[in-house]
Design brief:
By secondary structure, the chain is of the alpha/beta class. Helix content is 19%, strand content 28%. The protein has a seven-stranded mixed sheet with strand order 6-5-4-3-2-1-14, with helices on one face.
Length: 219
């Protein structure tokens, strides 16, 4: 598996010849010129995960890509006719993308504040016939699936979380590899602090891998 981080929560996962892009949002960069995508998956409607201004060009460059989003976002994109037709990812469902199966789980965004409405949020699990839990992108949630996940995209900072919660989630998931995402809300100094603590406090069996920006890393 190769993963390319385009900043914040936007990652490209290349698995068994299949190219799947997650959460092309306003705080991400460099995904605009991508071609040859097999799927574009969006976890939820917030702009830092779904940039409606850049989606049309991305889809235009990848007309063959399957387009999946949480139910609320799919409804909004279809209603506004943004970047073609989008399919709603209903919890418990799945879709085949080349040699990969993308399964939909989770369902709700983490609580930011009791006065802010909680929106849909899909956690995606990618797998193959022989390895069903190869990669998971939880969006803005600490959802724990009922299976072992090999590589986890780990939310490392957000308005809805404390660093201790990210540490606890990392330990509870205990993946083989954890790659931090959702870091754009931090300064460079703050990112260093968060990453150092996650590296220090992770489960001994987990490798903590910070991805280089816009360059593929094999995990």
């Amino acid at each position: 598996m190769e993963i390319t981080h385009f900043g914040h929560s936007c990652v490209l996962v290349e698995l068994d010849g299949t190219r799947i892009l997650f959460d092309p949002g306003t705080m991400s960069h460099g995904f605009e010129g991508l071609t040859g995508l097999d799927a574009i998956l969006i976890t939820h409607q917030h702009p830092d995960h779904c940039d409606v201004g850049r989606l049309p060009n991305l889809v235009g460059e990848n007309p063959q890509a399957i387009r999946i989003a949480d139910p609320q976002t799919a409804a909004q994109l279809n209603s506004d006719d943004v970047a073609g037709e989008w399919t709603a990812a209903l919890a418990g469902g799945q879709v085949g993308v080349g040699a990969v199966t993308a399964r939909f789980t989770g369902g709700r965004h983490a609580v930011i504040h009791p006065e802010i409405p909680v929106v849909d949020n899909v956690a995606y699990v990618l797998g193959t016939a022989t390895a069903p839990g190869r990669f998971m992108h939880p969006g803005d949630s600490f959802y724990i699936p009922f299976e072992q996940v090999d590589v986890l995209a780990l939310p490392s900072a957000a308005p809805w979380m404390k660093l201790s919660e990210s540490v606890d989630y990392l330990r509870a998931m205990a993946p083989r590899v954890a790659v931090p995402i959702h870091q754009a809300v931090l300064s460079d100094a703050g990112t260093s602090v968060h990453y150092a603590r996650l590296q220090e406090m992770k489960d001994p069996g987990t490798e903590f891998v910070v991805l280089g920006e816009e360059s593929a890393t094999q995990v």
